[in-house]
Amino acid sequence: MSFYEFLLFAHIAGAVIWVGTASAMQFFGFRALRADDPDRLANLASDVAWIGSRILVPVSLVTFLLGVWLVLDTDAIGFGDDWI
Q1: Which residues lie below 8 Å from residue 17, measured CB to CB, with a gap of 6+?
Q2: How far is it, in rounded angstroms, from Cα 54 to Cα 42?
């Protein structure tokens, strides 16, 4: 495995964790809203704040930085490309 492949794997894994965590929080939010329980909503809000600050923010920053590192590591793609 080359260094570029490792960066790509870590970048994709970070994106999967980022999107999966955000999706799970949405589903838990829908369930809490349907339950119509103020205590459950309050607990959900504190859980979302905890997950957001400890998982979503670090994973999103690392995923972004890995994406930048991927572009800098290869000559095949650049910041001017539409996909980037």
Answers
A1: 55, 59
A2: 19
Q: Output the pLDDT for position 75.
A: 86
Backbone dihedral region for residue 77 (phi beyond 0: left; psi -120 to 50: alpha; all else: beta): beta
**Residues contacting 2, CB < 8 A, separation 6+:** none
What's the CA gap between 12 and 67, in Å, rounded? 9
User: Among 70, 47, 46, 66, which residue's Cα sits nearest to residue 58?
Assistant: 66
The predicted pLDDT at position 39 comes to: 93
Secondary structure E strands in 1-84: none
Q: Are 52 and 22 in contact (CB under 8 A)?
A: no
**pLDDT beneath 70, residues of the chain:** none
pLDDT at 57: 96
Neighbouring C-beta atoms of residue 53, cutoff 10 Å: 10
